[in-house]
Design goal:
- There is one protein chain.
- The chain is of the alpha/beta class.
- The chain has one domain: Pyruvate-ferredoxin oxidoreductase, PFOR, domain III (Pyruvate-ferredoxin Oxidoreductase, domain 3, 3-Layer(aba) Sandwich).
- It contains 8 helices and 6 strands; from the N terminus they run E-H-E-E-E-H-E-H-H-E-H-H-H-H.
- Helix 2 links the parallel strand 4 and strand 5.
- Helix 5 packs across helix 6.
- The radius of gyration is 16 Å and the shape is globular.
- About 45% of the residues are buried.
- Its EC number is 1.2.7.8.
- GO terms for molecular function: indolepyruvate ferredoxin oxidoreductase activity.
- InterPro entries: IorB_Oxidoreductase, Pyrv/ketoisovalerate_OxRed_cat, Pyrv_flavodox_OxRed_cen.
Length: about 190
Amino acid sequence: MKTAGIIIAGVGGQGLVLATRMIAEAAFKAGMDVKTNDVVGLSQRGGSVWGTVKIGEKIDSPNILPGEGDILIGMEPLEALRWSGSMKEGGIIVLNENRVYPTPVLLEQAEYPEVQFEELKKRFTVISTDAREAAREAGNIKAANSVMLGILAGMIEMPEDAFIEVIKEHVPKSAVEENIAAFRKGIEISKAAL
């Protein structure tokens, strides 16, 4: 995929802003034109946060209109479901299975929408994984976002080295090797799924 509109969706505290920045920086290091934005104001209350990254040869705007997204990285399943309307038919949804239950579900006033997740698979290519478990297998449960970056890297035409360089720049030195291992685990997941 030479040009990609990527949406990253999750809830406050999941490291979405950093993940968005890392994708953009890796694209820049790979010599691509890149535009990005994110909305984080609700993150202080555990609310929805999202970012977009558009990469390609010539990008004019970071905005992704409804129905134009190529890849959706759902750091949380319900947020992936919420943002699925921004995706092209047949687009790719990378779904982290780790749930952050909203207040109405915790208060037993609503149910988590299990059936609707199956509907996503009818319209999109869905790569569903337990990123925390994959990160634990790589040596650090906190490296779940590196797993998600690896899955993305397995789908787009960007050198792995650009991502690894960005990981080295943004991850604490004591956790670099585990994050690189988690990133590579994500690439394996991506290649097995596509």
